[in-house]
Amino acid sequence: MTRADTPPVTGPQATPGPLAGLRVLDLATLFAGPLAATLLGDFGADVLKVEHPVRPDPSRGHGPAKDGIGLWWKLLGRNKRTMTLDLSTPGGREVLLRLAAASDVIIENFRPGTLEKWRLGWAELSAVNPRLVLTRVTGFGQFGPYAHRPGFGTLAEAMSGFAAMTGEPDGPPTLPPFGLADSIAALTTAYAVMAALAGRDRTGVGQVVDLAIIEPILTVLGPHPLWYDQLGFVQPRTGNRSTNNAPRNTYRSADGRWLAVSTSAQSVAERVVRLVGRPELIEEPWFTTGSGRAGHGAVLDEAVGSWIARHKADEVVAAFEEAQAAVALVYDVRDVFADPQYAALDTVTEVDDPDLGPLRMQNVLFRLSETPGSIRWAGRAHGADTEAVLAELGLSGAEIDLLRTEGAL
Q1: Coil, strand or helix: which one is 6?
Q2: How far apart are CA 104 and CA 46, in angstroms?
Q3: Do the beta carbons of residue 10 and residue 18 sit within 8 Å?
Q4: By C-alpha distance, which of 161, 50, 45 is closest to 98?
Q5: Is 182 a catalytic residue?
């Protein structure tokens, strides 16, 4: 099978996904917008990835590659058909309008005003399809003093307060080594799309989704704005400790493994200190609240850490499990692949790929009992489905050739 052939079906297909029949145009690049489209595709939406003819989505070149094929794209591009289209050309504009007329959702992340410059803004798109949901994912949103700045997830991680509260107390602010803000924004975008579609079901008309990447991460950080507003409290950097409960940290075992312990519930905190041989701590007045325990984190860390340091990791896990206390080994990806719980859930699943053979990647996000999602194929080659999609629109071979001559494809 060649790359341009119909994609193989590799996932379970007993029933169509719950989003079957939904057409999504993915015009976005890199991570937040494209990942949102991936999440919709995982549950049956027909996602069409539209890329520039000579400047494909940069995620194709991000991170490690095998045989010249970017592996990140295999994940981000799964369950998407791919076509090329230069939206700035007259022919590209006309094709997109025809695609929009037959679609439910467009996801884009151009700087505000770019689609309008090409005469492809909401006025033109809604004119050809009043039921369309136009989803605009940008760093700072469609208005405001920063709207036209280049925006990436790293900036959101910095501006939200995440970096300021992450790291050791005497160290610098710490950024995550992966696209955290983009991923949170992607999950939020998928939810926003479904909310907009639910609104369309009631009103019969589409709408514009304006999602700024700086906002969702601020929400998942919790009540920090509320704490500041009411108490003037600013979350400090506390390393692995929490300001809300203790013991909560990572501890090293006798055989050199790291383990994470959490005691958000009072009953669990009591079980832990009994387990490590320090039941007298329960009688301390400060032990009765999470914040009180957090204020004595050093005492609790010494009690828990010294006990864990005298035992091998498997002994620690077994003892905590018997005591019904919360503990987990600190994994790297090798441990994820070997873990029996992940295996039981099929969290990392195998996908057949015509380019690289069997691939293992994260499965769909959740399980549905009646209309499950599936990975039908991994990310496809740049423009693999261009001619097939144009033929679906009714374009003749001569018209397709003309578009190529114009540089629209």
Answers
A1: coil
A2: 10
A3: no
A4: 50
A5: yes
> Tokens for 171?
């160290």
How many other C-beta atoms can be found within 10 angstroms of the C-beta atom of residue 401?
A: 12
Task: Please identify which residue in the block is written with the tokens 């007259």.
Answer: 90
Q: Are 371 and 73 in contact (CB under 8 A)?
A: no
Residue 245, token pair as written in the block: 């409960």
Helix, strand and coil in the chain, % to nearest 5: 40, 15, 45
The residue with tokens 């601020």 is 218
**133 and 195 Cβ atoms separated by less than 8 Å:** no
For residue 174, give Cα distances in angstroms to 169, 228, 241, 265, 382.
Answer: 11, 21, 15, 28, 35
* Triad 212, 213, 214: Cα angle to 5°: 90
Q: In the 8-state DSSP scheme, what is residue 254?
A: T
Q: How would you class 64 by CB atoms within 10 Å of its CB: exposed for 0-12, middle for 13-18, buried for 19 or more?
A: exposed
How far apart (Å, rounded) are the C-alpha atoms in residues 120 and 12?
A: 37
Which residues lie closer than 8 Å to 145 by C-beta, 6 or more apart? none
HSE, side-chain direction, 13 A CA sphere, residue 260: 10
Tens digit of each residue's pLDDT (9 = 90 or more) over 30-83: 999 999 999 999 999 999 999 999 999 999 999 999 999 999 999 999 999 999
Quote the tokens at residue 31. Answer: 């991570």
User: Which residues have CB under 8 Å from 384's CB, separation 6+?
Assistant: 3, 4, 81, 82, 83
Q: Hey, what amino acid is at 28? A: A
Q: What is the pLDDT of residues 14-44, one digit of tens each?
A: 468 999 999 999 999 999 999 999 999 999 9
Question: 200-225 in b/e burial notation, b at 16+ Cβ within 10 A?
Answer: beeeeebbbbbbbbbbbbbeeeeebe
Q: Find out whether the peptide bond into 247 is cis, omega within 30 degrees of 0.
A: yes
Report how far apart the first and last C-alpha atoms of the chain are (Å, whole number). 23
Strands 258-261 and 249-252: antiparallel
From the candidates 57, 182, 301, 385, give the one annotated as an active-site residue.
182
CA distance linking residue 45 with residue 67, whole number of Å: 30
Strands 207-212 and 249-252 turn out to be unpaired
88 vs 91: CA distance, rounded Å? 9
Q: pTM for the full model?
A: 0.93
DSSP readout, 332-401?
-HHHHHH-HHHHHHT-EEEEEETTTEEEEEE--SS--SSS-------PPPTTTTHHHHHHHTT--HHHHH
